[in-house]
Structure formats: C-alpha cells, structure tokens
C-alpha cells in the first residue's frame, strides 16, 4: 500500500487554508491541510487535486514541495506541496470537514493543528512572508 499522505499548502492573498476535521473522534476539532492518501497508480499531484476537488470543491494547481516528509503513525508520511486556486473566484467550502479557514501569519498558532502539521508550521509560515 502506498504510504504517502499528500497535503496542499493552499495560499491566497498571503493566507493559508486550513480545515477542521469532524472525525474520527480522536482528531475531531483539530486542523489540517486539505489532502489524503495517494491511491495506487496516482501521482502525488493527481491525488492532491482529487482530494481538493472532493473536500473543497475547488480546482488547484500544484507547485513545489514544502518542507520534509513528516513521519505518521503506521509507517506513512505526510508530504506537503504548495498549491494555488485555479479560479481565484471560487471559494473553497467544507464539503467533508467541519470548517475551513484562511489563516494569516499571525493566526497560524491560533488553531489546534494535528501533530504532524505542527512540525511543518515554520515551513508553512515561510510561505506567507
Ligand atoms: N489530509 C491530511 N491528513 C493529515 C494531515 N496531517 C495528518 O497527520 N494527517 C493524517 C490524518 C490521517 O491519519 C491521514 C489522512 O487521512 P485522510 O482521511 O485525510 O485520508 P483519505 O481521505 O485518503 O482517507 P482514507 O481513504 O485513508 O480513509 O493523515 C493533513 O494535513 N492533511
């Protein structure tokens, strides 16, 4: 099984999009980047675009890697890519999550990130400067 979880660092107007999980119970209420598992036969970029379509109902363009792979429980890794909205007018909406929020540099520490995302905060912050 492919052990890569891809995440999108979606930036618009100097703000990063974060989404709040509603499930499972032990992660409910915590915040993460849009994304998910790379399925067999998918490239990272394809999987990321698919997840953003499913989760946010937006079309994205995938850019460069952000930070290093972060190990996750079960031998998986979290791999982040910079991303932008293809149609800036289209507003992401929380299709599968509890909420979405655009975070400026001063807001990044305000939300309860999943542990792996917390590791990446310096790299994410650098994207906003
Ligand atoms: N999408 C996403 N998952 C993250 C992040 N940080 C982090 O630790 N994870 C973990 C939570 C989950 O254990 C795993 C991804 O789960 P998921 O539920 O988003 O993946 P998926 O949509 O492919 O769901 P599934 O088919 O594996 O059930 O990675 C993040 O920033 N974004």
From TrEMBL:
Its cofactor is Mg(2+). It holds the Pfam family NUDIX. GO terms for molecular function: 8-oxo-7,8-dihydrodeoxyguanosine triphosphate pyrophosphatase activity. It is an enzyme of class 3 (hydrolase). InterPro entries: MutT-like, NUDIX_hydrolase-like_dom_sf, NUDIX_hydrolase_dom. It catalyses: 8-oxo-dGTP + H2O = 8-oxo-dGMP + diphosphate + H(+). Residues 1-128 form the Nudix hydrolase domain. Keywords: DNA damage, DNA repair, DNA replication, Hydrolase, Magnesium, Metal-binding, Mutator protein. Its EC number is 3.6.1.55. Belongs to the Nudix hydrolase family. This is 8-oxo-dGTP diphosphatase. It comes from Amycolatopsis lexingtonensis.
């Amino acid at each position: 099984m492919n052990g890569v979880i891809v995440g999108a660092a979606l930036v618009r107007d100097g703000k990063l999009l974060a989404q709040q999980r509603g499930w499972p119970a032990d992660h409910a209420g915590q915040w993460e980047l849009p994304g998910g598992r790379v399925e067999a036969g998918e490239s990272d970029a394809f999987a990321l675009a698919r997840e953003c379509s499913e989760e946010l109902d937006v079309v994205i363009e995938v850019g460069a890697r952000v930070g290093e792979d972060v190990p996750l429980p079960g031998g998986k890794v979290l791999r982040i890519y910079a991303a932008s909205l293809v149609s800036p007018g289209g507003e992401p909406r929380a299709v599968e999550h509890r909420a979405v929020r655009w975070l400026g540099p001063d807001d990044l520490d305000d939300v309860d990130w999943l542990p792996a995302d917390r590791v990446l905060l310096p790299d994410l912050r650098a994207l906003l400067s």
